[in-house]
Amino acid sequence: MAEKRKIGILGASGYTGAELVRLLLRHPRIEIALLTADRKAGQRMGDVFPQFAPYELPTLVAIDGIEWVGAGLDLVFCALPHATTQKVLKELLAQAPATKVVDLSADFRLTDAAAYARWYGHEHHAPELQREAVYGLVEVYRRDIKKARLVANPGCYTTCAQLPLVPLIKARAIELEGIVIDAKSGMTGAGRAAREEMLFSEVSEGFHAYGVGQHRHMAELDQEFSKAAGKDVLVSFTPHLVPMNRGILSTIYVRGRRGRSAAELHAILAEHYAREPFVHVLPFGKVPHTRHVRGSNMTFIGVAADRAEGRAIICAALDNLTKGASGQAVQNMNLMLGFAETLGIDMPALFP
């Protein structure tokens, strides 16, 4: 049997940390060697998340005082709040430079330090690592990820928008002006911390837009769409909160360039993703539901014609905790450690 690689999860008591544990427990090449938490330090993972009670897992520990050199970790997943992550990873990689990192926060997604300061309200605390980090959208940056020490896992909303749009932008198949991304996410995208506006009585029986015109994921979209186009691109993006646990559905409105029809845009996406294991393009005119991808690492994409001539409607769905966060993080880990990309994350969706 092949030797297992030792993995740590920083911030294991949150939703993305728990999803990482769920996925890694069935990964044949991984040993979960370290789990950290803040308020839950000292507790068993099975006490924090009862679904893990039957499994042998490390006790949750505080991150302060960990001797990274002696930890012997091959890779660390960092699921800590932004800004906190910068300081922790700066110390970790200084002490244990051979350890690889997949960061699930937003701290290393932006390559421009000025853009980071503008959107997050403070200077970056680890600019040398910011320059080193590789953006972790596997379907675009697969070769770079394989060689990376630090990978910035993309945001859930941005993954759901980029996968359908980047191939079309690169193919110069759509107009860059007037792209509209109307996105809806489940409650787990807001994290596990107790907040009044996330109480059941505050969010049930309705849904609402938030971060209108100023959501931080806009910086990530600007960066990646501009790279794909080779020039500045600004899109309209509005997120909404839906009273469900998991899932993102993005409805995207585009105009075909030089008369390209919706069917032609569909054909470009279908060909581009024909051999990708975690992106599935539906037959033309069909659109995905969030329940089609729940609990899986899949993204489903559908394309339909708008009744307005020359316009197309693209719908993309993914699970915000899996392909939008932890599943994509494991996909990155597999590449970084030389495993098969699909190892441990090739499960179908949960239905119903």
What report would you give on this structure?
The protein is of the alpha/beta class and 352 residues long. It folds into 2 domains: 5-153 and 323-336, Rossmann fold (3-Layer(aba) Sandwich); 157-320, Dihydrodipicolinate Reductase, domain 2 (2-Layer Sandwich), CATH 3.30.360. Helices cover 32% and strands 19% of the residues. The protein contains 12 helices and 13 strands. The protein has helices at 15-24, 45-48, 68-71, 84-95, 113-120, 127-132, 138-146, 156-170, 200-203, 217-229, 262-272, 322-336; strands spanning 5-10, 30-36, 75-78, 100-103, 134-135, 150-152, 180-185, 208-209, 236-241, 248-255, 279-281, 299-305, 311-318. Strands 8-9-7-10-13-12-11 form a 7-stranded mixed sheet. A hairpin with a 5-residue loop joins strand 12 (299-305) and strand 13 (311-318). Helix 1 crosses helix 12 and helix 8 (156-170) runs parallel beside helix 10 (217-229). The chain starts with a strand and ends in a 16-residue tail after the last helix.
